[in-house]
Amino acid sequence: MAPLDGWCTSLDEVPDEVFAGRMLGDGLAIDPTNGIVCAPCDGQIVTLPNSGHAVSIRGAQGIEVLIHIGIDTVQLAGRGFEARVKPGAQVRAGEELIRFDLNRVARAAKSLITPVVVTLDGAVLNSRRGSGPVKAGELLFEIGDTPPQSPAPSKEPQPAAAAGPPQHAITVTLPQGLHARPAALLARRAKAIGVPIILSAHGRESDARSVVGIMALGVRNGDQLLIRSQGCALPDAVAAVVAGLEEAQRLDAAHSPPRAVSTAAPERSNSSARAPKPGEMAGVCAVPGFAVGRAVRIERREIEVTEQGQGGMHEKAELDRARANVKLRLERMRNAGGAERQEIIGAHLEFLDDPVLNESAAEFISQGKSAGFAWRGATRRSISALQALEDSRLRERADDLMDVESHVLLALAGEARPLHLPLPEQAVLLADDLLPSELTALDRRRLAGIALSGGGATSHVAILAAAMEIPMLIGLGAALRGVGEGQSVILDADNGQLNYAPAADTLRQANLLVESRRARRAALRTAAAQECRSRDGTRVEVFANVGSTGDALAGVENGAEGCGLLRTEFLFIDRDTAPSEEEQLTAYQSVANALGGRPLILRMMDVGGDKPLRYLPLPAEPNPALGLRGVRTALSHPELMRTQLRAALRVTPRGITRLLIPMVTDRSEVLEVRQVVEQLARELKLDAPILLGAMIETPAAALTAATLLREVDFLSIGSNDLTQYALAMDRGHAALARRTDALHPAVLQLIAAAGGAGEAAGKLVAVCGGVAADRSAVPILLGLGVRELSVVPAAIPAVKHQIGELTITDCQAIAQRCLDLGSAAEVRSLVEQHIGHAGEDS
Predict the structure, then answer these.
(1) Is 768 a catalytic residue?
(2) In what order do the strands lie in the sheet with 198-201?
(3) pLDDT for 174-193, tens place per residue?
(4) Catalytic-labelled residue, pool 8, 532, 768, 811
């Protein structure tokens, strides 16, 4: 029977290769609408890990059913889960097994979709339930005749044998141990080689073909796993297990959420961070800065909805009415708000009219559900789909969906979210998490800082807070709830610390520091209006990275001399048809108008790979970072490329737009793009030359920069991608975040190759990646020949000021020394010793 309420669907919809590929067994999946998991049949609890994210039950004739709540929820380490039974317990169908916090798990997990599978090979499932709503206790499927298992795997861990066949010990290095995915991969390998393999750990053992048995061994990261098999078969057995573990390591890395935030003693990449003292707690810096104020809490209440409706026509009319009211209200808010708020509300309006979302809600209503239940079910299903994507920026659109959900549910209840949330003076906001619209509703003048129990460093809230220049700490954990309302606090985001019990003298010194920083920021912003030169007179341009008109306005306000990178993906993703030429022209022209005639470097669409498009038949990518993305996608869809280039070339005033080609690996790609650009320029009767640049994001492009410069007018180094490709480390991998550092000497040598080629050719080399705003990196980049830095708008005044204090001769000397060092840590240490961090509190 169904173990929980929700939407029933096929295992094919599960965003995990192991479940979708039936490696664990056959079954169905449920996208849950409540947080109570019940027994699907009578039986005994076989496994229930401490994390509480999964449970297996052995029913009649030894058949075992695994319920895995969400995807990659093992990484939550039990947060949000509460087991109501223990392993070995006898339970009846419908008895409560686990409770979980639906909202908390939904926001932290890759997906909430819950597989329910029979782990017996060859099990025949009959009377399968079709796609649609399901309630706990309703029939999910029946298990028919099952083939004999020969020899029968040992399902329950047995005491390890004192002596027997030869054995081999290995250490398991999987961060989450042998959970469902690696257990399935090991079992599949064991079945393939056709020889008996016994695994043992912690004094227990299991047949290697039994997924449940492997999980029940309780193997954690760092534990030893013993492998036994008969005589000459042992090498094959060991090879099979090692191969399974390596495959699991790769898949776990691929499924690991970027910048995952631990709510217990999170690690920080800031090398200057110190250990917390009594009265302090440690977090992760999402937006740097320093603030003093009084603690203010925001608690979001769960909006209650009834499940059963009053008829399809009535509920549809109610939902249409609520959506129309919300739409009018959001449009008024957008027209009255600033640039950042306009961008967020624009995303909300897109979701409000999304046809897939509304069709999904209509399905629920057709099943007799209320408008509120239908809207919540539809949005939660879409949230799960977004969180299954590999691109972190797309996953974070789930926050916008959660906002839209609450707006409509409140409208259905005859309420509305306040347009302005009251704050006292110098408020430091404390919360478990924060939605974008909640932040934009706050009075920026009264908000000194933000501290969250959870959160993400690349979330939309973090991006908004950075644009609003609000210091923000995340990942402070449950201890944050112990900070009293109105308590004086010091938020030191630079060092990842929250002081919730400061002494009077400490508080006085902190207030003086805040005032000093405020005055310095004002002075820097005034000075940033001038063109940027080093202390010895060398011209260095400082541009802004832009993703919207609001970003362009903020860049100009902060002293940007142009746009060094306009990301155009926002026009192409999350839609059913490609943007027209006129739509693109309107968007690009709006940015150009905001720049007031300053240069606009427009990056061609960097889509494909981890940014799939619904309207393009792009193949599934087993390794999106190395697949069909950037210029490769553009060249394989020439009409899409031509439409974008025509729109870009029509921007006025003519001559301010420069084109930038992403993901270049060789000269032929540049030549193909240039041929199209020149043809379009003739069609549009353009007289001014079109400046064309290549992005240096791959080692291949860096090492052949001199060749590329024969065909392009400038180079722009994308340090984020260049770093991950040079170091073979996924830049979004949480476990590698501290090591994926663009100041690694190998990355610097690639930048030096590009910078040297630019100097030799007399052409400009820019850096538009995150390292361009890194204070330790700026002198090195200038010393390697970079003469343009493109950074987030808020960082422009400080970067310009720092450049004004440097001489190119000194920068060249320190850069050459850094190229010969052995690690990024050594590079940072050397820079700090020789140049220091004067003015760092800017």
Answers:
(1) yes
(2) 158-159, 204-207, 198-201, 224-228, 167-171
(3) 766 777 667 767 777 777 76
(4) 768
